[in-house]
Amino acid sequence: MDDLLQDFIAETRETLEALSGEIVAWEAEPTDRARLDAIFRFVHTVKGSCGFLDLPRLARLSHAAEDVLAAVRDGQRVPDTALVNAVLAIVDRIGEIVEAIDSGSALDDSSEDLLIAALAEDAAPTAQSLPQSSMPNRTNARSVRLNVDLLDRMMSSMSEMVLARNELARRLRDQPIEPLVEGALERLSLTVAEMRDTVTRTRMQKVEALFSALPRMVRDTAAELGKQVQLTIEGSDVELDREMIELMRDPLVHIIRNAVDHGIEAPADRRAAGKREAGRLTVSARQSGNQILIEISDDGRGIDTDRLATKAIAQKLHTPAEIAMMDAKARLDLVFHAGLSSRDVVTAVSGRGVGMDVVRANLENIGGRIELLNQAGRGLTIVIYVPLTLSIMSTVVVGAGRQRFAIARQSVEEILNVRGEAVRVDRIGDAAVATVRGRRLPMVALGSLLGLDRADAAEDADGKLAIISTRDGDYALAIDTVLDTEELVVKPAAPAVMATGVYAGQTLPDSGLPMLLLDGAGIAAVAGLRFHRAAPVEETETVEAERGISALLFEDLDGERRVLPLAAIDRVEPVPTEAIRRTGGRLRLAIGGALVPLHAVAPIGSRSEVPVLRLTDGETDIAYAIHEAIEIVTLPRDVAPAEGAGTVAGVVIVEGEQIELVDALALFAAIDTAPPADRLCLLQQDAGGWMDTFLRPAIEAAGYRCVATVPPGASADVIVTMDAPPPPDADPAQVVRLRRERTGGDAKSIYRYDRPALIAALARAVGE
């Protein structure tokens, strides 16, 4: 809490210093709405901060000033000299209390009632009776607050040092180097790396600093409103620019307090709605591409857009005709209108129509945006997109024409050659579509989009495709070359460059040539790509019952696309073609010391390696040779049956294309598999070794495991003997005796080459 209090003191001091000129100007011209709004935001922020820092005197003063300023904004009070003097006196008093808190000195509060009384409409018209300022001595600051420009210059100097180090290393690599020089260079490299990390960390800070005040604020706000709220914080270790964290404090405070006050219902209302008495509030942060996403979600009542629309009409912000023409999103966006609140009663927490308009304005000023995901009666999720103004980012350096660009590595799904076997590029009118392993993606040529030379080079044989993932969808970005991967320092580019929407910032790689960082989502927007996402559905039992099964879509050896239920596939693995041979009348795969039956619809050809699907029914394994696995799809419930017997069960529609469904049952039925070798057969060895040479393969093919000696702790299921007598403790019913002569001999014995009789005798011996 000490750190939070020091931050509050430092921020309040800075704001008061910045407002000093505004206050004087407002005193000269009380009708100036911009300066009135600035003072109003200050006292509103002070009031909000006092709620979780437990500063009741500041809260009382700021609340009183906010009430009066809100009345002035609404046109209910005229900002005459007496009112202006009273407000300025309270602002001065706030500064005095802040300095007293910082110095730890006592400050009498007897005059504060007079300050608040002076705000009344019937108060004396002069300020002579107002208490005089008694500002205590200001203490030395415990921390140093640096200008962001200074930190930027430090980072630029650090980057220059890195470039000089790299150039020195390159020059030394071109000639023999002495061990002492090499050691000095190594120490220099370590020092530069440590300094670079240190300088970077002066600007980067974990959002934990932003989230640390939330538990206390939520607890106090909920207690004040008689509610129960369970707060969950996720992603506190995500790093964000320090300046961005400072700019995010006020918007986050507004949103959290609104969630507790507006969103989460009272315990009685939650019980009536079938919810838990304690509301759930989740605040999370994560990095997505070139942005930090902060999500605030609750399981409250959500936003009543009809109520907002009614109040907008009542306040003459929109006409009934305009409201009627609005879609759901436009009605939801009414919450951002200044002065419009969904609350009818003004409380210490909310209800003045201030907050969400300020939140959006602050975010837009720093290049961010806010998105609302509303579920009436179930809750609201607010997603804040914050740009990375300065960060160390892993990037892929690509070329288009004669220019180089960086792309955030986490937004690149994969990079492929355009003319590779897995990629096909088609043109539909003026648009290009890339098909990657059966997956159709809209394609954007980077050179063409930016108007560079060799705009169409990415569609030549040497071109490449980078599959870019965005929050809305994926697309293929056509580029000329992939040059390198680097960890780069990203900073904002010039406003004119950022205004194009294509770039997320600029960077200075080790080569020393400035380079722009591409914004994957921005490129999609500028190119006019539209991604269609299915609307979310309730996860009910009905939906589950209507959902099809998962299957693997693959290209078969004959060039046709087929699907096979995923549950029948144990794994997909490449195998050398030399391990596949036609033996014993069928194709078999020798793998892992075992022979696995293999199904192939066409010759494998001259390729050295072929992918196979390893199929299993839980007892038997078989293999299915294919050309290439494409993707996992969901099979529709409607299957057109195939005519005649074979390995195709029917035809289904997948992404508008007729696809054959492989019959897994037919594949296993076509394999004459031996029963599992879980029965133990003891072979009483003969003198010439005939049993091992001739008899063992036949018996093991029938599903028995043959041994010459029974392992310790085990017992034989059947015993086969010819010359040697059976063990003395053997059960006669388990003994199968062989004879060398076709006729004659013991009538209960079997001629050793009578295979059907032998197999039948083995089955009787084991009770089958």
What do these coordinates show?
The protein has 768 residues and is of the alpha+beta class. The protein is 35% helix and 27% strand. The chain has a six-stranded mixed β-sheet. A six-stranded mixed β-sheet has the order 27-19-20-30-29-28. Helix 1 (2-28) packs antiparallel against helix 4 (81-103), helix 3 packs antiparallel against helix 4 and helix 6 (148-173) runs antiparallel to helix 7 (179-203). The longest helix is centred in the first third of the chain and has 27 residues, at 2-28. The protein is elongated, with a radius of gyration of 39 Å. The model is unreliable at 455-461 and 533-547 (pLDDT under 50).
What are the main properties of this structure?
six-stranded mixed β-sheet, 35% helix, 768 residues, alpha+beta, elongated
Strands, total number: 35
Individual helix count: 22
Shape: elongated
Largest sheet: 6 strands, mixed
* Estimated radius of gyration: 39 Å
Q: Structural class of the secondary elements?
A: alpha+beta
User: What is the oligomer described by this structure?
Assistant: single chain
Distance between the termini: 79 Å
Helix content: 25-40%
Write out the strand line-up for the largest beta sheet, numbering strands in chain order: 10-14-15-13-12-11
- Mean pLDDT across residues: 79
Low-confidence stretches: 455-461, 533-547
Strand percentage: 25-35%
